[in-house]
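Why this split exists: single-chain examples teach little about how molecules sit against one another. For that reason, every record in the complexes split bundles all components of an assembly together and asks for one structure covering all of them. Below is a record exactly as it appears in the raw files.
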Amino acid sequence: MSSNTFGQLFRFTTWGESHGPAIGCVVDGCPPRIPLAEADIQHHLDRRKPGQSKYTTQRREPDTVEIQSGVFEGMTTGTPISLVIRNVDQRSKDYSDIAPKFRPGHADYTYDMKYGIRDYRGGGRSSARETAMRVAAGAVARKVLETGIEGGAISIRAALVQMGPHGIDRGNWNWDTVDANPFFCPDARAAERWADYLDGVRKAGSSCGAVIEVVAEGLPPGLGAPIYGKLDTDIAAAMMSINAVKGVEIGAGFEAAALSGEENADEIRIGNDGHPIFRSNKAGGILGGISTGQPVVARFAVKPTSSILKPRETVTRDGEETEIVTKGRHDPCVGIRAVPVGEAMMALVLADHLMRHRAQCGAPLPPTPPLGA
Amino acid sequence: MSSNTFGQLFRFTTWGESHGPAIGCVVDGCPPRIPLAEADIQHHLDRRKPGQSKYTTQRREPDTVEIQSGVFEGMTTGTPISLVIRNVDQRSKDYSDIAPKFRPGHADYTYDMKYGIRDYRGGGRSSARETAMRVAAGAVARKVLETGIEGGAISIRAALVQMGPHGIDRGNWNWDTVDANPFFCPDARAAERWADYLDGVRKAGSSCGAVIEVVAEGLPPGLGAPIYGKLDTDIAAAMMSINAVKGVEIGAGFEAAALSGEENADEIRIGNDGHPIFRSNKAGGILGGISTGQPVVARFAVKPTSSILKPRETVTRDGEETEIVTKGRHDPCVGIRAVPVGEAMMALVLADHLMRHRAQCGAPLPPTPPLGA
Amino acid sequence: MSSNTFGQLFRFTTWGESHGPAIGCVVDGCPPRIPLAEADIQHHLDRRKPGQSKYTTQRREPDTVEIQSGVFEGMTTGTPISLVIRNVDQRSKDYSDIAPKFRPGHADYTYDMKYGIRDYRGGGRSSARETAMRVAAGAVARKVLETGIEGGAISIRAALVQMGPHGIDRGNWNWDTVDANPFFCPDARAAERWADYLDGVRKAGSSCGAVIEVVAEGLPPGLGAPIYGKLDTDIAAAMMSINAVKGVEIGAGFEAAALSGEENADEIRIGNDGHPIFRSNKAGGILGGISTGQPVVARFAVKPTSSILKPRETVTRDGEETEIVTKGRHDPCVGIRAVPVGEAMMALVLADHLMRHRAQCGAPLPPTPPLGA
Amino acid sequence: MSSNTFGQLFRFTTWGESHGPAIGCVVDGCPPRIPLAEADIQHHLDRRKPGQSKYTTQRREPDTVEIQSGVFEGMTTGTPISLVIRNVDQRSKDYSDIAPKFRPGHADYTYDMKYGIRDYRGGGRSSARETAMRVAAGAVARKVLETGIEGGAISIRAALVQMGPHGIDRGNWNWDTVDANPFFCPDARAAERWADYLDGVRKAGSSCGAVIEVVAEGLPPGLGAPIYGKLDTDIAAAMMSINAVKGVEIGAGFEAAALSGEENADEIRIGNDGHPIFRSNKAGGILGGISTGQPVVARFAVKPTSSILKPRETVTRDGEETEIVTKGRHDPCVGIRAVPVGEAMMALVLADHLMRHRAQCGAPLPPTPPLGA
């Protein structure tokens, strides 16, 4: 029931404000005897951290993670794993502008309406800084997935497939390209065009949105829990909970609405190894809320950064009309740094469902009979 | 943790298979002293029930609801409300075709992979018949919303805004039109064109998808619970959990990705009554996961019905390649009957969040009424 | 978060009032492919049902259970199991006495204070009739335990060890005796004395309390989840939730407070089979919230039946002083019929913990190494 | 579902091991705008901290709490409150004895059986050090109770009512005495006798148990949530989850089993102020799981400290028989320091139920305050 907790069996609870002393999370329910070191987590945090190119905020947050509990002699013990990142670049800033004014597109107004109080420094709890802890928890989830699936080489990867109005050519998709440009773009040529485009956006003091695609491969069929714990239900919740996300889709997504039944049906054949194979993956790897064994494919849309240099009309806490310009160091496209966050959320959903599946359907219950048995 | 339960404080648990003796749900956490009669629920069930036009399945399910507990002398008592609908039109059917074969696009294969057993009759638990109980529970949620918000005239309405590839003209939007055509279409002219289109689809033994828009008006600001219980997070989960849904978006949704920061910012002014008003609603009524007081707007995409008369290739439980034709009485566009289901899910999310908000941010406990008061 | 649901992974939700049309429950999370028939459940309900001796209420409730969902061709499918018992002996009774008056020791006053409304017929939701559904759900839990523990012959049994002020001689303990007398007493001689005692209580229009002991044998070590999901924590909650229970203890229980550290330590040796054995079981089979493999032993105290024929002073809803006599057919010692309820609650806790353990520590995780490995 | 989390709406999650860098907790769901400072929490921690008399462990842990989030300008904001205590007195100790051996009465054996790994330093996660965070979270809960109940002067106090086999004279009960002796004993004369008794126990290298009584006064009727979220159910779980607790009882508790129905009935009269008053409180302030408005009274039994200087027989991880002496600085009676822990758990249960009650039965949402109000 906590709204600061995600997951059922593999779960994490985050805490912390943008300009408090630290942010952190507690990962709870992790299986024991999984090798885990800070470096396993830091690797993923480094992909998200700010200041890595001129296209992301110039704040300098090293985002160094510390493990405070739950690991003994390099192995998880099954007890809660407390992770913390100290906040170091909290520029002593003048908040006289945003304290009394509601920035359009931000959570300022709604937090005030809900709680009657808000830590306005840097967005407080509603800052995207919170997503660092998702990436940290997601790194632990990946370790669970590696350990938990027999013979499984599971991979969870994401890429930016649209920046502002500009998409990619899927024929150029190359996963190796993703980490070779500052946008996590899988199409090298699109990345070049985006560089120019985003320069223009940045110089204009404007911002743009993005679409991210997350792909999980190597999953067994059977993960997911109908009716209200469907795999796609939980992926939708996971992605929509990320700051600035306004839409989520699975497989063919919104385009499926325009297809005919026969176009949309993923026909099934028997592969050379005797296992079923699907001729297409309109379903995005999920049927009836349960994984089919095909790649799980999700996309989510991120709105343009609300913090822009162009003045916008707004009101104050005192009910006065005014306008506001959001100065400071902001990402012109927050969608970029949402890429590792999307991966993390997918890992977290899958680790949770792995454990949920094991609870209800795992050994020593008779294993699911293979086809033809 | 139950995957058959939705909601945290106002919650419901559904049970039942398409061809079992009955389907039902338990609504738990409902506030006491809310007037509730079977007719309040039946009204909404009747909008969803099959056989109302040639465009929906010709099964005859009166879908008559019975209240079995939790209501005393016409009022809720605060104890669990058990609702049941007897299944009456379970045609004794020949299942020799679908029992051993996996229908493409259906949950047959994945249920078998997960559980090693499946009630194949009419889709069993994965049948959209389950959504009748969502509509029933949603009717109770509406009553909570009516009672729970001071002076509030909350309305939750939905409409079909796209059928197959065919959209509507938003300039023609008329809520009164929605119940005046068999498609819940708000644009009377589009409805006429859709009639022809869907006739063609049906005669061809094919099917089509749809997009549904759900709008909640009259909400106060402040509902929603960051970070992982955001209002949009829960709406995304609610809609994605509906059978055949492949995408969900809030406000500008996926289109927001292509807007600039200044286009997407909903500027704020002070209205004549001293309350803030927004110049636009790109946010869909939600900022930082909390309601702004503007209309909450969500859309979801439904894939084309998987049960079609055109033969599709598939495999059997024995690992043999085969093909399948899904005979029987099916909706050519399951999106139509998803309209009242979308409304119900929105009501359920909002009722839950109303109670969650009251728990954390509500006034001190009312003093105990003295006896005899 | 539902207060009508018990359990985390293996969970059940009960509904229904004493004098409504039916009572029921939904068992959710049950593993698939477990053989289950109504007779498996009925057997346990029959041990609890009223009217079996002159020492229990003379109401005639056959308490016939129906399975409405979740079972297909004699096997569980992994979907929710809806169980229902129709209420048949709702004597059309004159409630003019208890409707406006608060019966001392009953929940009348508190339900009214909480909800401002109450179904007073037969106690409504607060009636011990609800415990029939616990026994039904517990019967399903037993099946899970039988299937879920490798090589395990788990047994869960309970007995009445104190009636009013009268205990038993533990030297006479014989499990076979338990079902051979109307009190579930394991000491045949005590049972004889209790017969006389309870006759006197009943004739005097009075009532008495009882203490029940529940023993689970055949459990593996390792079940239980520190810190707040300890096995003993959940057993305490389970037993305390039973109507009229006022105390719960594990192993040596309250007597442990008076022991010295050396008396209370259960020393450990290596048995002939190489497994550790404990010299005593003061811990009641649980250390640090986790099962040791010894028998799990819990006891709970049931207060005397509050419905008695002797007049008691009370007040009305209108704030008037008055007195009340509770007529009708009541158990002079409700503790007797609590015996199968205690067994059921133990089974429910253990089945839940079995699944929880499997989720976090189960295969394909490396199995716990045996001692000496 | 987390076993490291307690509470539903007002909830806290603890983390940390005895000899890790720190222990901490996240308090989630706290209402906003409650004044909170570290001193509010430290006050209660100081009552629990070790080394305050010769009767508790001589470890020197200042147990200084830091608030890391969720408080802004001295007020709670409604976001998660992270509390941390650095571990400072982790004597670099020789663990060669307890690492491979299972201490009788400790969780060593069961943690190893469950997880296959255990942080043996100082008991790791199973150390009573974890209870410091309960006291910290409980201090926040007290603030919620003060704010949440209109006109309410709620008090939660506890006392030691039995040490080893030695009880108190209830006629001497004086709450002021409780903090005037090292045992939290309410009977000054008993405290003197206990001093001699415990000296003897300590010098003998032995230990003893205790019984603690917790009393909450000033509660309104109506708190509690039948059937499985009863107030007494949650109190039982709360107390049983404390380290070394083996029994819990409410009101007359186990003694109720020996009473007659008429002795046990708390008769009701109308007081001078027009409110009902009860002639006795056998029920311990709870009927049907809901508070009556009388004082809520709970007692729990703590077993004797398992760490004693007398050698006990045990086995090693390698399956060898051996014996063990637990050296080090241990409380001869852990029950003493359990007194503030019992108070904290009571406060936590009540704060949670206050919020749960408000969610279901509270008044309509307060209208949104207009801007500038």
